[in-house]
Amino acid sequence: MISRFHHQQMQLHKWIINVSLKSMNWYFLSLGRWTKPTATYLQTLRKSLFPILFSISLIIALLVNSLTAVNAQLPRQEIRGVWMTNNDLHILRDRTKVQEAVSQLRQLNFNTIYPVVWNSGYVMYESAVAKSLDIQPFVFRGLDGHDILADLINQSHRQGLMVIPWFEFGFMAPPSSELALNQPNWFTQKRDGTQTSISAAGEVMWLNPFHPQVQEFITNLLVELVNKYDIDGIQFDDHMSLPVEFGYDKYTVDLYKQETKQNPPANPQDPDWVKWRADKITDFMVRLNQTVKQRKSSLVFSVSPNYYDFAYKFHLQDWLNWVRLNVVDELIVQVYRSNFQSFISKLDRPEMEEVKQVIPTGIGIMAGLRNNPVPIQQIRQQVRAAQQRGLGVAFFYYESLWNYAPEPSHERQAAFQDFFPYPAIRSASVR
């Protein structure tokens, strides 16, 4: 696959060559038209001009190659991000703490913040969409009543950081959420009729990604966010998917029978049944991308899934196909592993090599949890491995960068400064 960037450089080479040839032809044609020189004179002139023209062509070629090399290494192509989760709400709600956090990230040469905006069936901003469905009895606001997302965006943009809101829960919602209680027909089930699974977020239900009303709901949330805020992109993660055991609700079964003239296989891992559901999710992602791009073409459509083999086989998330269909503008694969060999095995997979030739690609690295701190040496080893392979990085999550850690905060911050010794400015309009 030829990358978009490489294609642009090839076109530039062709353009310069064509211009040079046309200019030479025009010059000699002009001489023939106005001076009517003899054939001998023209031959002598060509010989005398050849060294000059050759030198000019050589200089142009060197300049183009130099420009290509510089552009290929543009620092803004490198992802240096951090997720801000519900655990960071005490920071997000305080303007002063947000300013301090953003300034600190800028000083350490980060360039992207991924703040959570969709979690546990609730949005993190005042939403007319959520209000119309009566699924959110409260609004997350700052300490002085301000809009926390707008504040983060404003302060981040002043410091030159991109803000890409993160739809953390994707199709998940807790059984106790107003969304699950008020819209029971929107949720799918396993073959035995059970509707929940156990995730890192606890017991959850799964919205039916094939149901048109669910698709309309997710689309409306995105359109609202794009229209309301000066965001740089949208991010979905591994939960914009469906566990392979699900999809046996009445709506999906009827749709499958209508399209295939047969019942869904009893085995949820049947290859054709897996592909049918994965393709349906892909179709929705294509439409979702088109919808948001129509409103703001420069938006970064970001995806942060698990490694491909797991994502497709166990969560029906065919993200490699999404990339090939030009749906994804940046990819951050979550590789939350303490074992280094297991970590690098995911970085060296062939699909990673393919994708990084096309779009900015990074690795999600665990910086620590409150009950499971991660030593800086492990983080350093993983960051270096990613950088050596031409990959960016994003850390989960903000507060664990230098808090909840085995080392003092100043030691952690010094390490991050070492990871990113120079700025890497990103732009939403440049891939």
Automatic annotation (TrEMBL):
Q: Could you identify this protein by its name?
A: Glycosyl hydrolase-like 10 domain-containing protein
| SUPFAM superfamilies in the cross-refs | (Trans)glycosidases
Pfam family of this protein, just one? Answer: GHL10
Q: Which residues form the Glycosyl hydrolase-like domain?
A: 78-377
Q: Is Lipoprotein a UniProt keyword of this protein?
A: no
- Keywords, in A-Z order: Membrane, Signal, Transmembrane, Transmembrane helix
Keyword Transmembrane attached: yes
Q: Which residues cross the membrane?
A: 49-70
